[in-house]
Amino acid sequence: MTTKQNRIIIANHKMHFNFSQLKSWLDIFLSEVNLNLLNQTKLYLAVPASNLFQLNQTLRDMNLSQIIIPVAQSISPHTEGAYTGQISIQQLDSLIGAVIIGHSEVRTTNIYTDQDYWQMAKLALESNKKVFFCAGESLEQYNNGQTISFLGKQLEGLNDLHNSSDKVYICYEPIWAIGSGHQPKLTEILNIKTHLLEQFWKVPMLYGGSVDIENVDLVSSFGLNGILIGGASLDAKKFARLYDCL
Ligand code: PGA
Predict the structure, then answer these.
(1) Is residue 212 within 6 Å of ligand 1 at its C-beta?
(2) 176 CA to middle of ligand 1, Å?
(3) More confident position, 223 or 155
(4) CA distance 121 to 47
(5) How far apart are the first and last CA of the chain?
(6) Judging by DSSP bridges, how do beta strands 226-229 and 8-12 pair with one another?
(7) Of the candidates 54, 45, 53, which has an alpha carbon nearest to the alpha carbon of residue 20?
(8) Would the CB of 211 count as within 6 Å of ligand 1?
(9) What spacing in Å lies between the alpha carbon of 82 and ligand 1's midpoint?
(10) Listed range (13-17, 67-71, 100-104, 191-195) with the worst mean pLDDT
(11) 231 lines ligand 1 (CB under 6 A)
C-alpha cells in the first residue's frame, strides 16, 4: 500500500531556470510548503543538468538533502567517449539520487532506441540510482486502443532489471496528456496499472500528464505510487500548495 512516506513526487522543471532563478524558486517553495508534509513525502527535483552541481551543494548547505533529492532529466546510454552533448551517469553520480529515463520529450528527438533507454536504466541502477522510467502512448495509439500493447513494447527490456532492483519506477505519461490539460479516465489508468503489475510484478507506478492543484487530489486517489508534475511545478507558491492536497 502506498503511504505518504513511500509516495514519490517528482517536479520536472524541464528546460526552465538558470541557477539563480532555481534558488529563488527553492526559497519561495520552502517558505510556503508545509514542512511536515515535505518531510513525509520527499520531493524529487528534476532540473537541467547545468543546475545539478549547485543544487546539490545548496541542499547540503541547507541540510535538506534527505528530503529534496536532485534528479537528472536524462543520461547517456554510453559510459564514456565521443558523444558530444551527452552526459554519463558517472559524471552525475555524486550529484543525484535518481534519473528520469525515456521522457517523451527526449523520445521525440529520435536519438535513442528502446534498447538505449533500457541500457540507461541498467547503468543508472548499477550506480544505485532510482530510475523513473517513462512510457506513454500517442493520441493516435490511444484512440486505436493500442495503449497496453505499446506500453508493453516500451517496457519489455525492463523485465530483467526490475527483478534485481526495487529502484525501478514506471511513470505512465500519455504523450497526449502532457501539458495539454487532458488526462485519461481513472478506469483507464487502473486498467494499465493492473496490466503493468501483472507483467512487471510489484513495480511501483507513477502518473504524469497535466497534474495541477485542481486535479491532484483526484490523481492521488488513483492509488498510484506517485506523481510527476511538469508545468504546475514551475510556480513555487502554487506547487507548495499542491503538497497540501496530496
Ligand atoms: P505536465 O508535464 O505536468 O506539464 O503535463 C508532465 C511531464 O512532462 O512529465
Answers:
(1) no
(2) 10
(3) 155
(4) 18
(5) 15
(6) parallel
(7) 54
(8) yes
(9) 31
(10) 191-195
(11) yes
